[in-house]
Sequence to fold (515 residues):
Amino acid sequence: MFKRIANSFPFIGYWQKLTLSLWAVAVICFAFSDVEIISLDPWSELLRIVNGFIRPDFFATEYLLDALWQTVSFALLGVLGGLILGIPLSFIYSNRLVAAFCAVIRSIHEIFWALLFLQVFGLSPVTGILAIALPYGATFARVFNDILLQAPASTVETLPFKTDKVSRYIYGRICHVLPSIFAYIRYRFECALRSSAVLGFIGMPTLGFYLETAFRQGNYHEGAALLILFIALIGTIHLWCRPKLLPLYLLVGLVTLPSIPNIDSMLLWRFITVDILPPALQQLEHWQQFDLSVINQLLLWAEKLLFSQALPGMLITLLLAISALAMAHVIALVCSTLSYKNLTGRFVSRSSKFSLLLLRSVPEYIFAFIFMMLLGPSMLPAMLALALHNGALIAYLTVKQSDSLACSSHFNRKLDGYCYEVLPQIYPNLMGLLFYRFEVILRETAILGMLGVATLGFYIDSSFSEIRFSSALFLMACTAMLNIVVDMVSRRLLTANMNQQVSCSGSNDRISPVT
Fold:
C-alpha cells in the first residue's frame, strides 16, 4: 500500500514521502487520543517546580550517596550480567530459534521483568540486576552479531595456513570490531543507569525511589537536586567510568550490595509450577485430567483477556507511540539544526547540545511523572515525555554525523544552504534512527501505563497488583509480539526503496548501537 501511494507522486523523494506518510498517520492517531488538559492550575505547580530547580536542596535526602552508588552498582552489574549472557548468544545468533528467543526477551521492558522477579526474590538486588541483565543480554547478542558480520574477511585470508579456528576468529574478526563493541557497551551502560534509576519507582534502593517520593510529596527542591545529580552522573561518564577503574567498581559494587534475603525454594517452585499458570490449569490435580474441556476453558480465558485488555491496550499503545514518534521527529529535526555549529554559531550550538544532554539523560518515566502533575492524567504527558527524550537522543546522534561532514566552498551558512547541502546527507540517518527508536518508544509507552495511561503496561501492572500472574505473562507476551511486528515493519520501511539501499545500509551500520 505504501509503495502504491509513493509511486503516485514520482516528483517527491522517498524520504519526503515516508515523512509525509508518518505525519498523516500521526495526525489521525493524535485525533483519536485523549490529550485533554484537566489540571486546574498547572502554572502554579510549574512555578513551584521551577523554583525547586532554582534552589535545589542537595542535603534533604537521607542516604543520598548510597542511592547514587546503588544506581551505578545495579547498572554495572546488570551490564556485566548482560555481557555474560549476550556474548555467547551472539556467536549463535544466526540460529532462528536463538534470534526469536532474544527478540522476545529484549521486547519486554526492564521494569516488567523486575515486577516478575519481584514475586520470587522480593526487593532484593537480584531482582534489579536480573531485570537489567536479561533484556540487555538479548540486545547485546543481536548488536554484537551485527557488528561481527561487518568485520572484513581480508585479515583471515592473510593468517598462516595452520592457524587454529579460535585464533582466526579472534584476530581475523573480533579485533577489527573491538572499538565498535566497546563504544556500544559504553552506550548501553548509560542506558542501564537510566533503567537502574527507573527501578527505584517500584521500590528498589536506587535514585528513582527518592525521586518519586520527593515529587509525589511536592518536595521539588529535593527532587530537583536529585535530578541534577543524576544528569551530572550521566554527563560525566567519560570522566569517572574509565576502563582501568571498572574492576574496582565491580568489586565494590558486589561488596556494597544490600543483603540478599533467603529464598524459600518451595515458594519458588510453587510460583513456577502453579502461580503463573492460567486458572484452568491451576485447578488440575493431575495432568491426566487435561482434556477438551480444559482446552475450552483456556481458550475462553485467553479470548476474554485478549478482547478486554490486550487489544484495547495495544490500540492505546500504538496511538500513543505513533503520536510520540512524530513529535520526536520534529524535535530531532529542529534540535539537530540548532546544534549545527556552521549554521547557528558556537554559542547557540553549544547551548543546544547541552540541552540535548539534559533531555536525553532524564528517563521518560520521570518526564511523564512531572508532566502528569502539570497537565493531569491523559495521554499528552506521556507523548511529551517520549518525544522529548527520544527526539533529543536522535538529534544528539545525528549531530555527531553532521559535525563530521565537510562543507563545500558554496555553503552560505544560512538555513537554505543547510537544507540544500547538509540536511540531505544526514536525513536518511535521522529517519533510520527514528524508526529504530520506534521499538524503544513502544517499550517505554507500555511502562507509562504504570502512571495510569491505559496502555498494555497499565493492564500488566494491574495484573501484578491483583496477583494474577498468568494474565500478566499473557499481556507481556502480547507486548513482545507487538514490539517484534513494529520492528519488522520499521525495517521494511527503511529498506523499501531500492534507490536508497546504499544510504539505508550506511544508516544501519551507524544506528545499530541504539536499538
Q: What stands out?
A: The two ends are 26 Å apart (CA to CA). Confidence is low (pLDDT under 50) at residues 498-515. Residues 292-338 form the longest helix (47 residues).
